Amino acid sequence: MIVETLRTRLLRGVQAGTLRAGDRLPSARNLATEFDVDHRTIIDAYRKLVGEQLVEMRPRGGVYVTARPAGVGGIPALPEKWITNVLVEALTREIPGPELYEWLRRSLETLRLRAVVIASTDDQVAGLCRELRDDYGFEVDGLTAAAAAAAQSAPTASLSLRHADLIVTTAAHRTWVAEMGSQLGKPVTVIDVRPDLLGAEWGLFLRRPVYVVVASEDFGDVVRRFFGAVPKAENLRILVVGRDDLATIPENAPTYITQRARQNIGNMVLRG
């Protein structure tokens, strides 16, 4: 009980700024009078705080606040012994280091979920990441399907996958991403867009030419296939940044620009 009281006083003093590294603390005999105990009980409590690296006991010099560098908010850094004990316990139970890190992260972080998006093209990845981040509050990383497949055999590259709370992918990659999620112990959500929900809306747009600016030819093909059955789909004009001349878009023409395409245009302007 006494050691807890002394620890609390010390830490609160450090946080409040009334105690600093190197400050001398009350003697064991003074505290023995306060707590009405034998002074050796106080010395034993101080020794426990020495073990936690919170105080220093100097022979014939008294007890002082440790001179170790403080952590965040002035709180003394965690004793190395604590961390060592955690690592030893993990090794005893044959818990790999990365798994221990993941467990600690989940225990200490807020409840904001972390997702990884896997889709065919950069355009899709960027768009889905934006929606999950802006509309649902996720922390999001994105990978193309090719990069995600390569990440399975590359420990460093797969960190985002192993740290994810959720993997989000499209119907085109449903099977193998589900298998990967099962291996990693991660839930997988497959999303898709129903053409019948967008068909009528885009049917109105496509009564005249509509321009869609994309970052890659592959995503342009995805857009063409998606709207293939929509009436007047022939009015869809796909332009790829870096390949097609965007100046050919007529003034006031309805134009949709993917997020990734917008970023690429900005980079081109900066380089120019």
Q: Quick gist of this model?
A:
By secondary structure, this protein is an alpha/beta fold. 49% of the residues lie in helices and 15% in strands.
Helix fraction, binned, reads 40-55%
Number of helices: 12
Q: What gap, in angstroms, lies between the N and C termini?
A: 69 Å
Uncertain stretches = none
What general form does the structure show?
Answer: elongated
Work out the number of β strands.
9
Widest sheet: strand ordering: 4-3-5-6
Helix vs. strand class: alpha/beta
Radius of gyration: 30 Å
Q: Assess the beta-strand content as a share of residues.
A: 15-25%
Name the average pLDDT.
82
Element pattern in H and E: HHHEEHHEHEHHEHEHEHEEH
Tell me about this structure.
The protein is an alpha/beta fold and 272 residues long. The chain has helices at residues 2-16, 28-35, 39-51, 80-92, 97-108, 122-136, 145-151, 159-162, 174-184, 195-205, 217-226, 259-271, and strands spanning 55-58, 62-65, 114-119, 139-144, 166-170, 188-191, 210-214, 236-240, 255-257. The chain is elongated, with a radius of gyration of 30 Å. The model has no long low-confidence stretch (mean pLDDT 82).
What attributes characterize this protein structure?
alpha/beta
Sequence-ordered SSE layout with sheet pairings:
Elements: H1 2-16, H2 28-35, H3 39-51, E1 55-58, E2 62-65, H4 80-92, H5 97-108, E3 114-119, H6 122-136, E4 139-144, H7 145-151, H8 159-162, E5 166-170, H9 174-184, E6 188-191, H10 195-205, E7 210-214, H11 217-226, E8 236-240, E9 255-257, H12 259-271
Helix pairs in contact: 1-3, 2-3
